[in-house]
Amino acid sequence: xxHADSPIRVLLVDDHPLLRDGVRMRxxxxxxxxxxxxxxxxxEAAQLTERMRPDIVLTDIRMPDANxxxxxxxxxxxxxxTRVLILxxxxxxxxxxxxxxxxxxxxVLKDGPxxxxxxxVDVVHRGGRYFSPELAVSGEDMPxxxxxxxxxxxxxxxxxxxxxxxxxxxKEIAHALGASVRTVETHRLHLRxxxxxxxxxxxxxxxxxxxxxxxxx
Length: 217
Hints:
By secondary structure, the protein is an alpha/beta fold. The chain folds into two domains: 8-131, Rossmann fold, CATH 3.40.50; 150-216, Orthogonal Bundle (Arc Repressor Mutant, subunit A), CATH 1.10.10.10. It contains nine helices and six strands, in the order βαβαβαβαβαβαααα.
């Protein structure tokens, strides 16, 4: 079946109507991609996804009631046939790693060329993953070796790693563990020192790989 016979159905999620207008026009210049619905927040996005079952949800990270990464985590179980693609202005590697941990299928920068967005939609629809070339962390990056020093982790440090791998923020981890945000930040610092990891993005990659290892153990 050709693109013309079966266009890629996209739900666009962003709290700025003007930006949605621009993205819709960028996608509609192709013959094989159609924006079938638009939402201004995560709640609306869930309702529309339930009703319309889009192929792809294209969402910003920042929204009034949640963020795109949290939404991806929720959609992963609720709408397994719908793939989530992030469209963001944030280049920060930790955002990208959190997004990967939560099951997004791609991450495209808003200031990139329009062809990147079209290419991302195509790749993600085919079952692949797409990350803007300008990002410091590529979706194809291999995780660091997870066996080093992992046997030295305390139960609380292991719990922090597990929650990091699920894409939770420091505030969410603090709530889950019944601790303060400052305590979680201290745990993250100790983990970096103990594991000899440089930077928060590298810690996120380690957390995802560690969780995979534990799941397969």
